[in-house]
From TrEMBL:
Compositionally biased residues, Acidic residues: 285-305
Organism: Botrimarina mediterranea
Transmembrane segments: 439-458, 465-487
Name of protein: DUF4350 domain-containing protein
Top-level taxon of origin: Bacteria
Keyword Transmembrane: yes
Region (Disordered): 285-322
Length: 752
């Protein structure tokens, strides 16, 4: 998390940017009406139009001040329809300082305003890579810059952060057809909730229009709707319903308020959302088989992690810690762990023990029920989320809401914008981008021998010692060029990548959600720019040593072109190891075709990459397995016992987990902590190291559940499911077509 010094500096920078923007650009400041920008500016608030093109522009960039993609709405209006379609190009720049030329992020997009219309809208989706304080934009109609609807410089952004401490960012889609003039937002509310003790939970709720892309919801930590509104929302255009569903299965958290406690309502909710088959793990089955033990090294590490969490007084959330609801398969009440040996208020749920002493219920029934939906989850509340039953209000409130910390964006993604990750080094590309230490040692040794004794001896024998002034720099030049040439050849040419991804695939609906960490090394820059599908979110992962010692100076550019987002600059510089978190949720035709029944099933690989392992669970719950299936190949699966299938996947997954190279890892962060303990400047630098960890994000938690590393039953998938493993990308976009993958690990969990 940011240090207090960093927070004060950020607040001061924003205040200065706002002051400078208002003083230097009164025309634009006066155009801020109803909390959005209106240009051309009018002193009396009336609507005026550009003299060049007859257009009026309204910009609403209000959204959560945080991570995720920010949907910026632009609405062009004209008095009369144009006789021909007009091309409109928009270039929007964001800055954390507001200084001229300090463009932390530049987003460009083109659109065509049809003929015979008076209103035209565009939505620019801007990745939240830095904390912005200012925005500037240019608008070109045709090929001409229209200064009347462009900003003359940076102006303060319309963020909605309140600065009252950590917020739980909640978005609420509205079902109304009416619009409050323009803009995404109808209302904003900041609420302080106190349950039990003095600890307060701050929430920030925005009421917004239904979105058309899941990226528009990506900046929200929770989407909250009432059951009655959800019923109406499900009847809206499929594009809007799909956007909410794909955000959910990509890791979002949906709160359904005033749902009651009837199990039939829970099944109705999953039907309205279309997520009935999106529970990929935790089947609630009781199996008599014993889990094979973990390797001692992993067991020790897992126990150490648990101990550190318990010392931090935070509850450990296990995926399977629910009381299943028989009438609503997949739903359950979250269990509450109570230590009856602890006396007094030392037990956070002593009130539960006292009020329910004669009852076996130790869960959230009467408050909420939940179910998994891909990487995300749905919580159905009896009333409102913070209407906590009296028996759960006893003790410290942080224990009541502790399990909700994983709802936060940073916890779900394992990173914070502008902060470094101490785990950057555990997914490096093998033998790429490293300093040529061995070659340097050999060359410097030869250089010393040649330029010294050998050079002198040869010239002495020839009686030409005066040539030392010529041969010495020549040998030095050859040695330097040799070292540079070796480094270039050793890293090869083209683009190399290492990826670690998990894809959840529902073949019945043809939808998939993918999380992946991708390391890139661009040895030679290709002619074409890297690009990602428009349904993909990308977030930079900075090394902790860079975030701690180097002031962030991001200069990123994105251009939206049709169904692609082109990464123009700053994302993948040449000869530099970079890493990104990629999240994708979309419609797909990739699949495994399984034909047959019982123990005789033939599988055809249509996933687009060779498969190293396929583990299948058929309709009857029996297990089958195959290895080494070529792309577009087909094989007959072999029946195996569950333990054999589990061991096959578990061994492969554990052996391919991200790991630090020898001598690296958390030593960097520990060194910073030691230095920072006695130096104010280094303590300031440590503010660039975020508290979230990639090893605990949604992707890692799901993989831990599949392997059993989180304490649950491994390969706990429902019937008609499979797990496929590959070393080439299946659903993770890598930026270019021809990327050489090294030591990658891709897992697909599918249902058919």
């Amino acid at each position: 998390m940011r240090s207090s010094d960093s927070a004060r500096r950020l607040l001061l920078a924003r205040s200065l940017a706002i002051a400078c923007g208002v003083l230097a650009m009164p025309a634009v400041a006066a155009a801020i009406s109803n909390n959005f920008f209106v240009l051309p500016a009018s002193p009396d608030g009336s609507v005026v139009y550009s003299p060049r093109n007859g257009l009026n522009l309204e910009i609403d960039d209000r959204w959560f001040d945080g991570a995720g993609y920010r949907p910026v709405r632009l609405r062009f209006s004209s008095v009369t329809p144009a006789t021909a379609a007009r091309r409109i190009d928009v270039r929007m720049s964001f800055s954390d300082s507001g200084r001229v030329g300090d463009n932390d992020l530049v987003v460009t997009q083109s659109g065509e305003m049809p003929a015979d219309v008076t209103h035209f809208e565009m939505v620019l989706r801007c990745p939240g890579v830095v904390a912005w304080s200012s925005v500037a934009w240019e608008v070109r109609v045709g090929d001409q810059l229209d200064k009347s609807i462009s900003s003359p410089g940076f102006v303060p952004t319309q963020n909605v952060a309140s600065g009252q401490g950590p917020m739980l960012r909640i978005a609420t889609p509205s079902n109304t057809e009416d619009r409050a003039e323009t803009g995404l937002l109808y209302a904003r509310q900041v609420t302080s909730i106190a349950v039990g003790g003095r600890r307060r939970q701050f929430t920030e709720r925005l009421v917004c229009e239904p979105m058309t892309s899941w990226l528009d919801y990506s900046g929200a930590e929770v989407v909250s709707v009432e059951l009655a509104t959800l019923r109406l929302f499900a009847e809206r255009p499929e594009e809007e319903v799909a956007a909410l569903r794909r955000w959910l299965i990509a890791g979002g958290v949906l709160w359904v308020e005033n749902a009651g406690v009837t199990p039939s309502v829970y099944t109705e909710i999953e039907s309205l959302l279309g997520v009935s088959r999106w529970r990929m793990t935790s089947t609630d089955e009781v199996i008599d088989e014993d889990e094979p033990p973990l390797p001692e090294s992993l067991l020790a590490e897992d126990e150490s992690d648990q101990a550190s969490q318990q010392e931090a007084d935070e509850p450990i959330e296990r995926r399977g810690d629910v009381t299943p609801i028989a009438e609503a398969p997949g739903w359950g009440y979250v269990k509450i762990e109570v230590d009856s040996s602890v006396e007094g208020d030392a037990s956070p749920f002593r009130g539960v023990l006292d009020s329910l002493a004669a009852s076996a219920e130790r869960d959230t029934r009467g408050w909420f029920a939940q179910r998994e939906a891909g990487f995300g989850r749905v919580l159905a509340f009896n009333k409102l989320p913070f209407d906590v039953p009296p028996q759960l209000q006893m003790g410290r409130s942080r224990q009541v809401f502790g399990a909700w910390q994983n709802h936060r964006w940073a916890s779900r993604h394992g990173l914070e914008p502008g902060s470094g990750s101490a785990e950057f080094g555990n997914l490096m590309i093998p033998d790429v981008g490293l300093a040529p230490v061995n070659a340097f040692q050999v060359l410097i040794t030869l250089f010393v021998l040649v330029i010294g004794p050998l050079n002198y001896w040869l010239l002495w024998r020839r009686q030409q010692l005066h040539l030392l002034v010529v041969t010495t720099p020549l040998v030095a030049l050859v040695a330097t060029l040799g070292l540079a040439a070796y480094a270039s050849v050793a890293d090869g040419f083209g683009v190399k990548a290492r990826a670690h991804s998990l894809t959840l695939l529902d073949q019945t609906s043809g939808e998939a959600a993918t999380w992946g960490r991708v390391s890139h090394y661009v040895a030679t820059t290709p002619e074409e720019l890297p690009s990602l599908p428009a349904d993909t979110a990308i977030y930079p992962i900075d090394p902790v040593w860079e975030a701690a010692f180097v002031d962030p100076d991001a200069d990123l550019a994105v251009t939206w072109e049709g169904d692609q987002q082109v990464l123009r600059s700053g994302w993948m510089p040449s000869r530099t190891a970079v890493q990104h978190l990629v999240v994708r949720s979309h419609k797909t035709g990739k699949r495994l075709d399984l034909v047959g029944e019982g123990a005789s099933i033939r599988v055809a690989n249509r996933l687009g990459a060779p498969l190293e392992l396929v583990v299948v669970r058929n309709d009857a719950g029996e297990w089958l397995m195959a290895e080494n299936i070529e792309r577009d190949g087909a094989v007959v699966l072999k029946p195996v016992e569950r333990l054999a299938a589990m061991q096959g996947f578990r061994t492969m997954a554990i052996s391919r987990m991200p790991s630090f190279p020898a001598g690296a890892g958390r030593a960097v962060e520990e060194a910073l902590a030691r230095v920072g303990s006695s130096n104010r400047e280094f303590r300031r630098m440590q503010g660039g190291m975020g508290g979230a960890t990639l090893s605990e994000n949604s992707q890692s938690r799901m993989l831990d559940a599949l392997t059993g590393l989180d304490g649950s039953r491994s390969v706990d998938v429902p019937p008609r499911s499979y797990i496929a493993v590959a070393s080439q990308s299946i659903d993770t976009p890598l930026g270019w077509e021809n990327v050489e993958e090294l030591d990658s690990f891709h897992v697909v969990v599918g249902r058919w």
